[in-house]
Amino acid sequence: MTRNDATADRAEPDTVAEDGEVVTLAHGAGGEAMRELVDKLAVSRFGDAASDATEAAKPGAVGLPDLDDGSAHPLAAGDASIVLTTDSHVVSPPVFPGGDIGRLSVAGTVNDLAVMGATEPLALTCSLVVEAGTPTAELEEILESMREACEDAGVAITTGDTKVMGNGELDGPVINTTGIGAIDPEAVVTDAGLSPGDAIVVSGTVGDHGIALLSEREGFDFGGELKSDVAPVNDLVAAAVDAGRVTAMKDPTRGGLATTLNEMAEKAAVGIEIEERAIPVDDTIASAGEVLGIDPLSVANEGKVVLGVDPADDEAVLEAIRSHPLGSDAAIVGRATEENTGRVVLDTGFGRRYLSEPAGEALPRIC
Ligand code: MG
User: Fold this and answer.
1) CB 83 within 8 A of CB 75
2) How far is 362 from 73, CA to CA, in rounded Å?
3) Is the pTM of this model over 0.70?
4) 302 near 211, Cβ under 8 Å?
5) Which residues lie at CB < 5 A from ion ligand 1?
6) Å from CA of 199 to ligand 1 middle
7) pLDDT 10s digits, 72-95
8) Across 116-245, where does the E strand assignment appear?
9) Span from the CA of 86 to the centroid of ligand 1 (angstroms)
10) What is residue 50's predicted lDDT score, i.e. its pLDDT?
11) Pairing between β-strand 306-309 and β-strand 246-250 as defined by DSSP bridges
12) Residue 7, exposed/middle/buried by CB under 10 A (0-12, 13-18, 19+)?
């Protein structure tokens, strides 16, 4: 049986939902379609149990129904919360300008912990799935990248697993990392905490990862200047939260800044008004985006943070981020507002329009 036959067999009714729905690439894009699927498949089943174990019993907990970057579990003693997150990485190609799947799989998980407030991760796990025939030298390079990224983040991989699939059953390595942190319950920052007036801070140029990756995939040569921003940002986040009151945080990965801002606005029931000219975008990334027909605001970043900041502290937090080596391009790009609840308004300098989430399938295999 060929691989395509096997796929056709799997599409028989027992694996198709009753209404005939099947999983599409859009469900992996990080936007509305993915949230609906996760709601339908997972929150409906595990959401109540997660609430019983966390929210109902312990105020300050963050559970599955919150669909945040991770979950937070206050311990009985009340002096610490365990923060937990997990992420699988399937990026194609596995090596790209500025990084590879190894660096990505460490940064992705460290950053999800960091934007929950857990900037000093306790440990990471690494679960690796590869196919037979993968050169061990290739794996060694990826693992060496993971080691370097762990060093950057000040964390270690303490447990893991390796599975080997048959030759031809996988078209590249799949790496799952899970991360754990323990912090003061008061230090947990969700992505739902914006209030009207809060400054919206972006820690650097947007669109770098998505556009660098897509250029590589499509074989475009922009003079070797495009690079993914993939990096652990936990140290930068630590500097930011030390400098002032951060009310909400999220890393703008799949769906980019546009999706992240829409999610933050919707969850906090506020509007967000953004000034397009204030958003940092690298010139080369902007021109490559035009050639590729991709908006830098709508593609993944892997080394950036979006923060909501109390207006009394916005300049102090901005200054702290700008003083960090990964934050020199940081900017205040807008404010949370009472108007336009759940929406993001983009002021282009010529007029105002809604900034929506990218619809449907954005870019598959991007992280
Ligand atoms: Mg995240």
Assistant:
1) no
2) 33
3) yes
4) no
5) 69, 112, 251
6) 20
7) 988 887 789 999 999 999 999 999
8) 123-131, 157-165, 174-183, 199-202
9) 10
10) 57
11) antiparallel
12) exposed
